[in-house]
Amino acid sequence: MARYWSLLLPLIAAVVNAEDDVEPTVTNWPPSSWPWPNAPFVTLSAESGPISAHRSKPPVTTSFTGIPSYTYTISESVRPDSTSPASPISTANSTLPECKKIQYDFPAGSGGNTERAAAVKEAYLFAWDAYSKYANGMDDLLPLNASGTNDWYGWGVTVVDAVDTAIVMNLTDVVTQQLAFIQKIDFTTTTYGPVEIFDTSIRYLGGLLSAYDLLNSGLFPNTYDQSQVDTLLTQATSLADKIAFGFNSPSGLASSNVNFTSDTPVYGTYTVAATNQTYNSTNTASTGTFILEWFRLSDLTGNESYRELSARAESYLVNPSPAPVYPGLVGTQFDVDTGDMLTFDGGWEAGVDSFLEYTIKTYQYQETATTTQYKDFWLQAAQSTVEYIALHPYGFPGITFLSELDVNGSITWSQDDFSCFAGGNLMLGGKLLDMPELVDLGIAVTDGCHQTYNTTVTGLGPVGWSWYNASNLAYDPLRDDDTAARRFAAKYGYFIPEGDETWASRPESIESIFYAHRITGDPIWQEYAWQIFQAINETARNSIAFATVNNVNEPFGGSLGNSLDSFFFAEVMKYLYLIFAEPEVVNLDQWVFGTESHPLLVQCGIGAIDDYTGVTNRTNGYVSR
């Protein structure tokens, strides 16, 4: 999902006429029980910097049934420097609550497609073999010149990020190779400078924990060296103990980076243009995307420090000060010294995406007093989404997009591909909370993202797009007289701003299609996924491996980019494979996916595999390779 804030579109502060901010009341969606109010009037000042919204009328009170008034509290004693090991917690079947039914009940023998699953597996092996040949042990493969690069600290991020996909695909020879490599990594040191701890956590730590859970679940073949399997948790702990120094900030919010030599946080900065005041800052998604993996690590090791550190950081985000323009839709920058929110650019886009994603997923993972508060906050964000930012482009009432907000909290009538995870996240939350209206919204959002795939020349989606509002105007006035944008939008409902034409191996639209398939059982989603897979093979595949595509609206992508990120293996390949695999493979009733598509065992009663207690030899019908 979500999430790589360095790729955010430029944030543009603008004064927007209130009349242009209003979207019409829709008639086809949402259901009549959900009134869709107009956005409140927002007074903006270019001189004063980020400000709170002033409302010309009382705040809208319409809400989902059962959403509580939200105030977050935390009582844990937090010790930023405490990472001492503890004995693992034993979890017995009788202590775990019953699992919530999330996945569609596919009739026996339905829901999978063996031939298509095999085609996706072949694509994984094609790319993996190229990595092993040209970049073995390095972080990433460069697919245009058959070489490698160490852009993620030289620990072999492709290996760690890709191992759980190989486990799910039952590529036992590949997994054997990967486990042997992982056992030898030294996560305590790097020669490549300060470590960016957000991606390090979701890619490396998430990959290690997922592989550990999958191999110990009893649901997948495990004929591997058990010492290497055990090392997965040891390595995760070693890495987390270094990342933990990033939480040693004045507020407890995680820093952007950590110096692994001095074990000190390294802060990012954010400057308010209007005042020229610079703050030590952290990105919302960066500091808010630890709770799922770190709660799991605490449960596996018995060391509560990981839970406490990540929960303390999360407490600022789910109780933001000042309040966001729309409840739950926090901005992308927080002050690490005070914990205050610095910007009002809320939504589901890069920079805030995986923070929202984890507030409901951590509740799915384990229902506690703390995670229930996360769930309540997520519901507030979902409510605001319905009321203010789930919009329809001019002339296309059947298409739903999720608008980003600018730094002042104004609607921009634009969306990035990162936010396409929201469709699946809304469907997941809707099933988890018995709210079919949210499932319907998630389907609509996923359909909107798919629209940006099946209407381009290549069949691949851009990294971002915009549309004309209810008054047929764009956020950027220059686009109002853009003939090409007008013509494209008149035909498809959106246009692609210059610079956003790239397909960068992003998984988010495929991710939501996976959730739509597994939650609704509608075979149309498998067809959508197959079309995207064919487009990837047709456009992004070269004689070496796969690459990024520079322009989705040119034949064959115009040209290719020289990168194959590890998330291509971790997310794109995994989600595509699981769409065509038998539905019991990584069942959503039993597993919760991290933002890098690393499944972790949900802490609920799932019969034979309650947290490794009473495991079976069931292997989902796989035959070892």
Automatic annotation (TrEMBL):
Disulfide bonds join 420-449. Residues 1-18 form the signal peptide. Keywords: Calcium, Disulfide bond, Glycoprotein, Glycosidase, Hydrolase, Metal-binding, Signal. Belongs to the glycosyl hydrolase 47 family. PANTHER family: MANNOSYL-OLIGOSACCHARIDE ALPHA-1,2-MANNOSIDASE 1B, MANNOSYL-OLIGOSACCHARIDE ALPHA-1,2-MANNOSIDASE-RELATED. The lineage of its organism: Eukaryota, Fungi, Dikarya, Ascomycota, Pezizomycotina. InterPro entries: 6hp_glycosidase-like_sf, Glyco_hydro_47, Glycosyl_Hydrolase_47, Seven-hairpin_glycosidases. One of its GO terms (biological process) is ERAD pathway. One of its GO terms (cellular component) is endoplasmic reticulum. It comes from Oleoguttula mirabilis. This is alpha-1,2-Mannosidase. GO terms for molecular function: calcium ion binding; mannosyl-oligosaccharide 1,2-alpha-mannosidase activity. Its cofactor is Ca(2+). It holds the Pfam family Glyco_hydro_47. It catalyses: N(4)-(alpha-D-Man-(1->2)-alpha-D-Man-(1->2)-alpha-D-Man-(1->3)-[alpha-D-Man-(1->2)-alpha-D-Man-(1->3)-[alpha-D-Man-(1->2)-alpha-D-Man-(1->6)]-alpha-D-Man-(1->6)]-beta-D-Man-(1->4)-beta-D-GlcNAc-(1->4)-beta-D-GlcNAc)-L-asparaginyl-[protein] (N-glucan mannose isomer 9A1,2,3B1,2,3) + 4 H2O = N(4)-(alpha-D-Man-(1->3)-[alpha-D-Man-(1->3)-[alpha-D-Man-(1->6)]-alpha-D-Man-(1->6)]-beta-D-Man-(1->4)-beta-D-GlcNAc-(1->4)-beta-D-GlcNAc)-L-asparaginyl-[protein] (N-glucan mannose isomer 5A1,2) + 4 beta-D-mannose; N(4)-(alpha-D-Man-(1->2)-alpha-D-Man-(1->2)-alpha-D-Man-(1->3)-[alpha-D-Man-(1->3)-[alpha-D-Man-(1->2)-alpha-D-Man-(1->6)]-alpha-D-Man-(1->6)]-beta-D-Man-(1->4)-beta-D-GlcNAc-(1->4)-beta-D-GlcNAc)-L-asparaginyl-[protein] (N-glucan mannose isomer 8A1,2,3B1,3) + 3 H2O = N(4)-(alpha-D-Man-(1->3)-[alpha-D-Man-(1->3)-[alpha-D-Man-(1->6)]-alpha-D-Man-(1->6)]-beta-D-Man-(1->4)-beta-D-GlcNAc-(1->4)-beta-D-GlcNAc)-L-asparaginyl-[protein] (N-glucan mannose isomer 5A1,2) + 3 beta-D-mannose. It is an enzyme of class 3 (hydrolase). SUPFAM superfamilies: Seven-hairpin glycosidases. Pathway: Protein modification; protein glycosylation. Its EC number is 3.2.1.-. Ca(2+) binds at residue 595.
